[in-house]
Automatic annotation (TrEMBL):
Highest taxon of the lineage: Bacteria
Family to which the UniProt record says this protein belongs: Belongs to the LDH2/MDH2 oxidoreductase family.
Protein name in the entry: Ldh family oxidoreductase
This protein's record includes keyword Oxidoreductase: yes
Keywords attached to this entry: Oxidoreductase
Pfam families named in the record: Ldh_2 (PF02615)
PANTHER family in alphabetical order: MALATE DEHYDROGENASE, OXIDOREDUCTASE-RELATED
Amino acid sequence: MTHMDFDALVALLARIFIANGASAGVADILARNCAGAERDGAMSHGLFRMPGYVSTLHSGWVDGRAEPVVEDAGASFLRVDAANGFTQPALAAVAPIAIEKARATGACVVAIRRSHHFAALWPDVEPFAEAGLVAIAMVDSMAVVVPPGARRPVYGTNPLAFAAPREGGRIMVFDQAVSLLAHGDVQIAAREGHVLPEGAGVDAAGQPTRDAQAVLDGGALLPFGGHKGAAIAMMIEIMAAALTGGNYSHEVDWSAHPGAQTPCTGQCLILIDPARGGSGAGFAARVEQLVDALRAAGQERMPGDRRFAARAKAVRDGVPVSAEMLARLEALLTS
Ligand code: NDP
Ligand code: PYC
């Protein structure tokens, strides 16, 4: 295991993206995102994803050089056509305008369509909370989650991320899939031979299974919390696809592009200026009071705590990367 300087890791990943057809701008954004996930210990969306990005670029399914088009849709509404590119460059293009609108009007909805999201969602919300706004993001993905009572998957693993300012420049953030496990974690479990937790998935015959490979071989994932998680999955399909003009998870069809792995769907982002609410400038203090109440009640770990601790350690010691992973990454420079 070596410990890589974060910027050196970003530079290596950017070279891989460029070597496989991405523009320099897209490469830098995706490299920072992917290295950031690894740095924060979000392994299901860190370096593990690089071969998937590369095979998708080679398949012609995604445009690694796409130029997003931002459309003004009202005082508090922005649309973005990601032009069959990745979501993060589209978000980067619209973010400054969205912040401006949220500050000017109290809120802003951003509807991104024709966009590929293959990453963790927290990087899409954290910067807005750091800028003093509340941010909620939703993305639909590919149909691998079976609704209660249904015979086949319809929903994606559809992540939902939330971030809000806390006192002292800190933020409160959570980021979670609607399935009990993210698809990436099932792939990792299959590769490493781990058994899935109870209630994570079903096999091709629709029977409950803890076998990760059975879920991948024609089985499906289950939403967390049964019908309650399924309702959140439905909301995310409506907000990230119907509202944005993107694909539903069940409409993603990459069959003509062998090697494609990045779902082309949509993302909805909602920004709120918390100073407009009833707590006014006291919003961050009110968030802190909730955290205090949770801690007093015995909850020691807040969402984001593990990620922030991993980040602080990596900033100090470097990002741990195994020799095997480094060799795999270097091979992607010439794939
Ligand atoms: P996890 O279940 O690992 O974590 C979900 C959230 O709960 C995190 O905010 C986490 O904080 C927090 N958390 C975890 N354990 C505790 C605990 N004991 N007490 C308090 N808080 C806790 O995430 P998922 O497996 O659902 O998702 C993993 C990643 O996969 C996400 O980043 C998601 O965006 C991504 N994903 C992306 C998809 C896409 O289409 N692009 C699709 C599906 C998932 P912390 O981070 O600090 O652990
Ligand atoms: O881990 O479920 C997942 C996922 C889907 C798309 C990107 N990540």
